[in-house]
Amino acid sequence: MSLQTSPRPADLTPAPSPFLDVRDLRVHFPTEDGVVKSVDGVSFTLEKGSTLGIVGESGSGKSVTSLALLGLHKGTRAQVSGEIWLEGRELVALPEHEMRGLRGRTVSMIFQDPLSALHPYFTVGAQIAEAYRVHHKVSKKEARDRAVEMLKRVGIPQPERRAKDYPHQFSGGMRQRAMIAMALVCDPELLIADEPTTALDVTVQAQILDLIRDLQEEFGSAVILITHDLGVVADIADDILVMYGGRRIEYGSVRDVLKRPEHPYTWGLLESMPHITGDVDRRLNPIAGSPPSLINPPGGCAFHPRCTFKGWVPEGRCAVDRPELLAVAGPGKHLAACHLTPETKNEIRGRRAAQ
Amino acid sequence: MKAADEQEHAVSTTQPLPGQQSAPAGQPPAGENLLEVSGLRKHFPIRHGIVFQRQIGAVHAVDGVDFTVGAGRTLGLVGESGCGKSTTGRLVTRLLEPTAGTVVFDGEDITHTPVTRMKEARRNLQMIFQDPYSSLNPRHTVGTIVETPMRLGGINPPQGHKRRAQELLETVGLNPEHYNRYPNEFSGGQRQRIGIARALALRPKLIVADEPVSALDVSIQAQIVNLLQDLQREFGIAFVFIAHDLAVVRHFCERVAVMYLGKIVEIADRQTLYTRPRHPYTHALLSAVPEADPDGIRRRERIRLAGDVPSPVDPPSGCRFRTRCWKARERCVTEEPPLVRLGGSPAGHLTACHFPEEPTIEAREEDIVLDPAVTGREETAAGTA
Asked: How many Cα neighbours within 13 Å face the side chain of A205?
């Protein structure tokens, strides 16, 4: 880790070591066209019992980050560097057979599309029982009872009968509940949910979010929720990490990031979202352009080609210097990577409020 | 958009659209109903057997839907998956044959018009599809895709097909030089723009947009919504906008219909529907929408329905929502509530419910949580506390 390419972020000052500590994580994929830098220097910490929301567009590196936490890039062409400390163990360098002992037991994942994540050939109960038997020396009968208990816990009616059903016999929301049951069967300490509700209707989405929050309270696990929906994050997360082009651009508590966003990209995300309350005729204010290339990312700030406010920064610094992730004035641990000075931002905010 | 204006006038000489020419931009003549749908039904048969197939049941996808859309107006159809909103859109554009009911478009009954004669109506009735990847032929260039409706419709714009296609590409915010490219060279948002250019090619009076932004990222979604809004206002096109995202629908549509299991359960103008809904289902839908405002969440009511939508093969008797409704009583089982204007509702606000809710979405004193997984724990927590 050289200091020139990755300025040591301000939030990593020594503290009692957190439950999960990701430091300068990089995941690069060599391809024929060049190296795809999907994740390029991401750091965050997470304590037990709290929830981190990772937000960003398609291709911003949020899913690749989560796969790295599970060690699922091992044995592929991906080049992973940096450090992932989970309860004092470093996961990036951990050999695959040791990672297997953690996967599913200490770190577990809920995938976006439960129909493709569940095996179509086995019953739901058998798949949950298998996840349990991998980590616990119990009889098939005990594992099966445990599976039924978990199905009941996630709110599936008639769990004894439904455990004998195949995934295709479940509805979308039920399948996602079954996925959650499978992820939680070993009481994991870290649960990663990768877009757990994107494929679901709003009413079912609300049910699943309530369930995740409820189970988190019960089991006290740490949760990482990956989503592109700021509404979902506001509902469930404690902290938000906003990613753009494989990097962190804003990081802080939900309240800080949503109520007083500091990065023009976060402004753009919030202004391009339609709401169900407030002025109906408010025009959406989309972010122009499309997400950056990860092979040849724009020089300087990766967001500058789409940024409306680059003109406010003198001497075109945005296109040359990459802004560091710096602490924002005020209480809390709010960080943002932008060249705009606090005075300029206040002026911009004032102008927009006046409009 | 001055260039776009000129090109539109050029086209309207070959394709006279009375009423739209004389109307100022954004102010189409009101009053006339462009689309009238009444008693619309679509039942998909479920067949059994290989050689001798007999019908053993039917999916009641759309089961008696009535609505009208005025010229230049926008109607939103919202609901969960499987509520029949997409089927309704396809029935209106006659991509599907209705089982019963009538569709009157522009004064003409097109319910059972043969496919060969639908060409006339489709000139004024176009569709935008959800998936920008599967709705464009990968072996055709963008130019061919946008020109095809003109060729099929026998429209020959004075400036020629190519010029017109390039103008359309410019109208939707693409570079006219992309004329010779193939769809795979474009991103999702750009492909959706190509689909919109194709729908605009014949200068239709009505566009049915079936989840046009669901597959896109938030920032791109806003670009497309703004584009549709500009086109709608500038050319006075009426829209039937189908989406499951209540916030997008509120933003785009003047009038909104909420569908549940093949029926409209509530319909009103957006201001009324989003602030003073009466149907319990509308309340539940609105309370489930996540909002990116840490304070707003607490001000809104919280209702969590249990389970999923019942099967449309054998919908519940009486009120279809009763199996998930916390207010359901004996009457809801036996008697189907009609879609009527309730006492206390403004004109044009119709609700189908025997026991309507208070017209507000302010937080109620108690949450309604019907999910057994969550209630079970909350009860035990309350018991130990």
From this structure: 28
Instruction: Provide the residue range defining the domain that includes B81.
Output: 2-49+57-253
pLDDT (tens digit, 9 = 90+) per residue, B230-257? 999 999 999 999 998 899 999 999 999 9
B377 vs A contacts (CB less than 8 Å): 214, 218
Local structure of residue A228 (DSSP, 8 states): S
What ranges do the domains of chain A cover?
33-244, 247-277+308-354
Residue B28 has what pLDDT? 43
ipTM over 0.85: no
Question: Which of chain B's residues have a Cβ under 8 Å away from the Cβ of A203?
Answer: 80, 284-285, 288, 304-305
Name the CATH code of domain A33-244 (choices 3.40.50.150, 3.40.50.300, 3.30.465.10, 3.40.50.1820): 3.40.50.300
Query: Residue B300's closest CA among A255, A353, A273, A234?
Result: A234
Secondary structure E strands in chain B: 33-48, 54-70, 74-78, 100-105, 108-109, 125-128, 206-210, 238-242, 255-260, 263-269, 303-304, 350-351, 368-369
CA distance A240 to A249: 11
Number of structural domains (chain B) is 2
- Chain A, residues 219-238, CB within 8 A of chain B, namely 228-235
Could you say which of B187, B218, B253 is where a domain stops? B253
DSSP letters along A94-162, please? Answer: S-HHHHHHHBTTTEEEE-S-HHHHS-TTS-HHHHHHHHHHHHS---HHHHHHHHHHHHHHTT-SSHHHH
CA angle B184, A284, A54 (to 5 degrees): 70
Look at residue B269 and tell me if it is in a domain.
no
Do the domain assignments include residue B266? no
**pLDDT per residue as tens digits for the range A107-152:** 999 988 888 889 999 999 999 999 999 999 999 999 999 999 999 8
Mutate to test the interface with A, among B219, B226, B374, B379 (most CBs of A within 10 A): B219
